[in-house]
Amino acid sequence: MPKLRVHNFAVSVDGYAAGPHQSIDNPLGENGTRLHEWVFETRTGREMIGAEGGDEGLDDRFVAAGFERIGATIMGRNMFGPVRGPWGDTDWSGWWGDNPPFHHPVFVLTHHPRPSLAMKGGTTFHFVDDPIEAVLGQAFDAARGQDVRLGGGVATVQQYLRAGLVDDLHLAIVPVLLGRGERLFEHLDGGPSGYERVELVSSPLVAHVRFAPA
Fold first, then answer.
1. Of the four, 13, 14, 33, 79, which is 20 to 30 A from 144 by CA?
2. pLDDT tens digits, residue range 96-117?
3. What CATH architecture applies to the domain 4-20+27-83+97-207?
4. Strand order through the sheet with 207-213
5. Residues 54 and 47 sit within 8 Å (Cβ to Cβ)
6. Which segments in the chain show pLDDT lower than 70?
7. Where exactly are the structural domains of the chain?
């Protein structure tokens, strides 16, 4: 049965998944890029940016797993871009250039729907203002039997955790302290209930922890 999966969701030791003051220059907030430096030490991460080389060990296997058997993605508007409120005449098409790395349908949660945006490589962004359960149904239909990946940001993952809809939650705990920003486990009444740890492994750069419904 297809699953809703969260992959390589990086958090600091003090629980932050993004730094403060997110902007075009700092899409992950101040010091937020420190949470993802480990990704680009891997072979898969380097391939994503058109570079060669990279480690092929534990971290690479987790990064690569985030693309396996994924037929659609759900993300929040903040992950798609920095534009707030009505879109107006903006031509913003995401952080990823003309050929985003998804290569499948992507559903962007927003209170301001706009026409779908088809990009090179098979990625089409759909901008939807529906309940999260309905969006998940649309994503499963679009995935055609494959799994759906749940991207960021923090608020989007929190919504699906509160609803108990996440089937596989992979956190990458990075040994840095951000001190402020957006915490993943805020606004969850003490944390997501009904989940248990199913895997815990570590490389020199990051600890990987996976949770699944108990």
1. 79
2. 889 999 999 999 999 999 999 9
3. 3-Layer(aba) Sandwich (3.40)
4. 117-118, 124-128, 105-109, 70-76, 147-150, 4-12, 168-174, 207-213, 195-202
5. yes
6. 190-191
7. 4-20+27-83+97-207
